[in-house]
Amino acid sequence: MSDRKHGCRGKVDGQPTELDRRVLEMARRGCLVPGRELVKTPEQIEGIRRSGAVNTGVLDCVAAMIGPGVSTAEIDRAVYDYTTSHGAIPAPLNYEGFPKSVCTSVNDVVCHGIPSEREILRDGDIVNVDVSTILDGYYSDASRMFLIGNVSPERRRLVEVTRECLRIGMEAARPFGFVGDIGHAIQRHAEKNGYSVVRELCGHGVGLAFHEEPDIEHFGRRGTGMVLVPGMVFTIEPMINMGSRSIFIDEADGWTVLTDDGLPSAQWEHTFVMTESGPEILTY
């Protein structure tokens, strides 16, 4: 959380901009507003947008080759080859010791699944492929769910409702609204459909680093959290469980997050930039 809570962009000719004035007024009312470093310049947004275009291309590459009989290690190699051939770097590779270029989370794996030669996708699986890209120092982040072969109606519904949660969270994100508005909308939709929201993991600011402020939680109350100011770049990435929201981390690798009850989990993610008229998607 930034210590600088009073002001976002620089001044024009020594005078506060209209954006500055509005943010300062919200700060005076006791709202948590972003520090200047969290509001990206137009040049920075363009850099993140270019990174996002490569990131989307990576997921399109995965979509073209994923299916029954494919190992998650093959997905990892495809991600690495596509990313590096486009002059970019897979952000997960060696991040805090993560050993691969992509997270592949199958069935009851919530997130941070590590690709393996031994993990072969089979008919009926659902898998989240989470890719993050660094291009010219700019970061982007997105994930998609893939249905492998003949997937049961119950799993298909989980995947679809989770995608709806992402869309509803995006629609709840408004300029000068609050981070809590996003989480409230997602939680309400997930629970209305009989699912639970993972609370230990969240979306985040992104762009100049892999993870920036603010945390974008996928549950909560409206009107709480940091103010969403035009120029902020962040992810929304709801993780929705078919059963209990309880999770654990596999002690064997220290990364893989699984559902406590062994039931499936799903996740979708985009990177967004907040504009004066609402969020714009930078990754698909």
UniProtKB/TrEMBL annotation:
Its cofactor is Co(2+); Zn(2+); Mn(2+); Fe(2+). Residues 46-276 form the Peptidase M24 domain. PANTHER family: METHIONINE AMINOPEPTIDASE (PTHR43330), METHIONINE AMINOPEPTIDASE 1D, MITOCHONDRIAL (PTHR43330:SF8). The keyword Cytoplasm does not apply. GO terms for molecular function: initiator methionyl aminopeptidase activity. Belongs to the peptidase M24A family. Methionine aminopeptidase type 1 subfamily. Removes the N-terminal methionine from nascent proteins. The N-terminal methionine is often cleaved when the second residue in the primary sequence is small and uncharged (Met-Ala-, Cys, Gly, Pro, Ser, Thr, or Val). Requires deformylation of the N(alpha)-formylated initiator methionine before it can be hydrolyzed. Keywords: Aminopeptidase, Hydrolase, Metal-binding, Protease. The lineage of its organism: Bacteria, Pseudomonadati, Bacteroidota, Bacteroidia, Bacteroidales. Monomer. InterPro entries: Creatinase/aminopeptidase-like (IPR036005), Pept_M24 (IPR000994), Pept_M24_MAP (IPR001714), Pept_M24A_MAP1 (IPR002467). It catalyses: Release of N-terminal amino acids, preferentially methionine, from peptides and arylamides. This is Methionine aminopeptidase. Substrate binds at residues 112, 211. A divalent metal cation 2 binds at residues 141, 204, 237, 269. The keyword Metal-binding applies. Its EC number is 3.4.11.18. The gene is map. Binds 2 divalent metal cations per subunit. Has a high-affinity and a low affinity metal-binding site. The true nature of the physiological cofactor is under debate. The enzyme is active with cobalt, zinc, manganese or divalent iron ions. Most likely, methionine aminopeptidases function as mononuclear Fe(2+)-metalloproteases under physiological conditions, and the catalytically relevant metal-binding site has been assigned to the histidine-containing high-affinity site.
